[in-house]
């Protein structure tokens, strides 16, 4: 998909969208013009529309200073990451405001993705040049993505507006908040249809497109979250059924680091990845702004994560050029890893580690990581080690974002067994399966023993933290566990900064609705506390 699917057909779709807007404003329909009525007819038309919907995922992380909102809004707010040299940051310190650009970017990109999926679903029935079997797959892809976007809205804004059709009038854009549970219900319905309509596997030319397994994994994750958000333990059984159906269909790769290098993408452990790529005349811009050569934007995660300069102005190679050092690792995460856990070096750099990134991916320049490059002594290695900017026209990387891995399936299934069916032995076996991949000998990471519910849940929380650190899951995990009464964020979590610990409050379980959206649509109510 990265090479032959996501990097094709965007130009035609964008032009069609532009003509559509011009038609609405000028009421002109020149002979042969591409517009909403003439474009959505052929298989290639819908391939382009599908690529456009997928490309929305790239908009979250394209920008080197986080204009997409993803790095701060999903990552820096957890207890694993902190800002560069302890610089003051309202997002990290939970001084969240409705005027913050972070929330506006995440909100607008998410609804943009929903609009793009809605148009596919609406236009498919009348497309005479597309076979029924092909229509089914395109609709399933659109529903997978729409399910993902609505799930994202539910866990970030609660009762955000539910948009299921393309607004055609100004009045239709004034949609108020959804009712409690509506976003969850809509996402579940979409993901079930996606699971039924998507193929088990794509050929190599389409690798990276959503599969039935990806839909089942996303559905199971949603059900697990809902069980905890709404205190509905019966949903653990439904979630477990989705995860159990995927056991054996994927596998844990032998080398943990292979999950985060650009040369080992879409591997046997991958369930769904955001396919990154750079092309066109200006790869500094997000996918929405690249009109030439069917291009898509890459991810700025690499330059955002790479080390820069410490408080005493001791700098890493490439500081300020290929590394901005915007993220540092909290001491809490540094201490969370058991001594010798091989995942530590794949996740975070410590003093004396080989700094094998950029032009030193082969170690030829013998760069050695220095704690003096940061104030905490550590910066991210995940998505940084063994990655070099492939396209030097921009600071972007083509390293895919791993959204769901098989390890996540196993640990979410373990959680369902532990909290749902009370199969303690089954839960422990799954936790140990993940640990054994990291250390097959068992000498560094001994098996977790079957103990009490509380002991096993503590082991599960530890395993999720070290296995998925810097993969944008941690704060969501803390929120759902807090809502389920399994932890108390205020007393149990150390965010690594006194101000963050002091400021965190129940209101931070949700994000503020962007004020710019409420100015345009007064029907949307603000979340409590903002």
TrEMBL record:
What family is reported? Belongs to the SusD family.
Q: Which domain of life is it from?
A: Bacteria
Record's protein name? RagB/SusD family nutrient uptake outer membrane protein
Q: Which organism is it from?
A: Spirosoma aureum
Ranges for domain SusD-like N-terminal: 79-224
- Where found, per UniProt? Cell outer membrane
Q: Name one GO cellular component term.
A: cell outer membrane
- Enumerate the spans annotated as RagB/SusD domain: 328-529
Keywords, ordered alphabetically: Cell outer membrane, Membrane, Signal
Instruction: Give the InterPro entries listed for this entry.
Output: SusD-like_N, SusD_RagB_dom, TPR-like_helical_dom_sf
């Amino acid at each position: 998909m990265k090479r032959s699917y996501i990097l094709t057909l965007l130009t035609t779709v964008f032009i069609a969208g532009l003509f559509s807007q011009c038609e609405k404003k000028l009421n002109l329909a020149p002979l042969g013009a591409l517009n909403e009525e003439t474009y959505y007819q052929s298989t290639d038309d819908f391939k382009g529309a599908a690529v456009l919907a997928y490309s929305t995922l790239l908009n979250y992380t394209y920008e080197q200073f986080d204009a997409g909102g993803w790095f701060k809004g999903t990552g820096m707010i957890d207890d694993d990451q902190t800002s560069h040299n302890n610089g003051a940051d309202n997002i990290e310190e939970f001084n969240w405001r409705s005027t913050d650009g972070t929330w506006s970017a995440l909100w607008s990109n998410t609804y943009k993705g929903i609009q793009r999926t809605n148009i596919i679903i609406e236009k498919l029935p009348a497309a005479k040049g597309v076979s029924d079997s092909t229509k089914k797959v395109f609709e399933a892809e659109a529903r997978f993505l729409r399910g993902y976007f609505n799930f994202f809205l539910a866990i970030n804004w609660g009762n955000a507006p539910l948009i299921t059709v393309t607004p055609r009038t100004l009045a239709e854009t004034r949609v108020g908040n959804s009712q409690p549970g509506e976003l969850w219900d809509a996402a579940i319905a979409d993901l079930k249809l996606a699971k039924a309509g998507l193929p088990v596997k794509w050929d190599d030319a389409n690798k990276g497109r959503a599969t039935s397994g990806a839909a089942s994994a996303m559905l199971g994750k949603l059900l697990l979250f809902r069980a905890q958000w709404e205190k509905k333990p019966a949903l653990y059984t439904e979630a477990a059924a989705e995860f159990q159906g995927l056991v054996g269909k994927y596998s844990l790769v032998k080398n943990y680091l292979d999950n985060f290098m650009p040369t080992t993408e879409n591997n046997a452990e991958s369930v769904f990845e955001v396919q990154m790529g750079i092309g066109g005349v200006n790869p500094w811009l997000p996918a929405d702004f690249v009109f030439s050569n069917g291009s898509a934007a890459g991810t700025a995660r690499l330059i955002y994560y790479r080390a820069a300069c410490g408080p005493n102005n001791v700098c890493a190679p490439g500081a300020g050029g290929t590394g901005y050092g915007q993220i540092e690792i909290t001491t809490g995460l540094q201490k969370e890893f058991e001594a010798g856990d091989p995942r530590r070096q794949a996740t975070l750099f410590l003093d004396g580690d080989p700094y094998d990134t950029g032009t030193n991916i082969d170690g030829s320049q013998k760069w050695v990581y220095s704690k003096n490059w940061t104030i905490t002594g550590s910066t991210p290695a995940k998505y940084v080690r063994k990655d070099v900017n492939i396209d030097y026209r921009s600071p972007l990387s083509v390293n895919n974002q791993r959204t769901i891995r098989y390890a996540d399936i196993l640990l979410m299934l373990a959680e369902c067994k532990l909290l749902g069916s009370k199969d303690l032995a089954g839960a422990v076996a799954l936790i140990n399966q993940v640990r054994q991949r990291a250390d097959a000998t068992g000498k560094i990471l001994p098996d977790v023993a079957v103990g009490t519910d509380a002991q096993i849940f503590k082991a599960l929380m530890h395993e999720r933290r070290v296995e998925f650190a810097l993969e944008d899951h941690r704060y969501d995990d803390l929120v759902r566990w807090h809502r389920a009464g399994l932890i108390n964020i205020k007393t149990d979590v150390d965010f690594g900064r006194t101000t963050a610990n002091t400021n965190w409050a129940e209101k931070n379980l949700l994000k503020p609705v962007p004020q710019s959206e409420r100015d345009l649509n007064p029907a949307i109510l603000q979340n409590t506390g903002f």
